Amino acid sequence: MRFDDLVIPDSPACRGALEVAAQYHSPSLLNHSIRAYLWAAAYAQDRRISFDAELLYVSAMLHDIGLVAEFDSHTVPYEEAGGHVAWAFCAGAGWSPERRLRACEVIIRHMWEEVPLAEDPEGHLLELSTGMDISGRGTDEIPAEVRREGLERYPRLEIAKEFSVCVADQGARKPSSLAARFVRDGIVDRILRNPLDG
Question: Which tens digits make up the pLDDT trace of 166-192?
């Protein structure tokens, strides 16, 4: 599989979500969001997993929006804050209430340990791909040519350093959150050992 084999949707909602991500994310976080979609799409296509490309793309672009200062919540975990932003964005994009809820769910579930494929293919794929890109889990599951070209087009920049700071901050301020549990379980060490940075 090559990069050009990937299904990359180009709907108004997808273009808008990318614009929002580019406006509010750092360059490192923006590239991470794009790679999260690429790794998910490549994994799915390689295994013939059916998925809604537009839903997955929009969710990937907005899945970390709750980390940025403008949308950071002091009362809920960042993935929940991001889910709420996605719901509002998708309402503006004209999506049905059910489809808005799906985007919210996919973003919240990307922090789960595991999202069942049969229950939520897009949540399953985003949970896998963000784990690949941030903590290096399962990076060998990304087709080699897609991985090479994805990293070339959307380099990692300072994502390891930036995300380590973000997740530690979220964990400290929200001790009952999944981010806090991940910090206690050693995610920062895994981030710094990610083979994608090798």
Answer: 999 999 999 999 999 999 999 999 999
3-class SS letters over the chain: CCHHHCCCCCCHHHHHHHHHHHHHCCHHHHHHHHHHHHHHHHHHHHCCCCCCHHHHHHHHHHCCHHHCCCCCCCCCCHHHHHHHHHHHHHHHCCCCHHHHHHHHHHHHHCCCCCCCCCCCHHHHHHHHHHHHHHHCCCHHHCCHHHHHHHHHHCCCCCHHHHHHHHHHHHHHHCCCCHHHHHHHCCHHHHHHCCHHHC
Which pTM value belongs to this model?
0.96
Q: 23: exposed, middle or buried (C-beta count within 10 Å: 0-12, 13-18, 19+)?
A: exposed
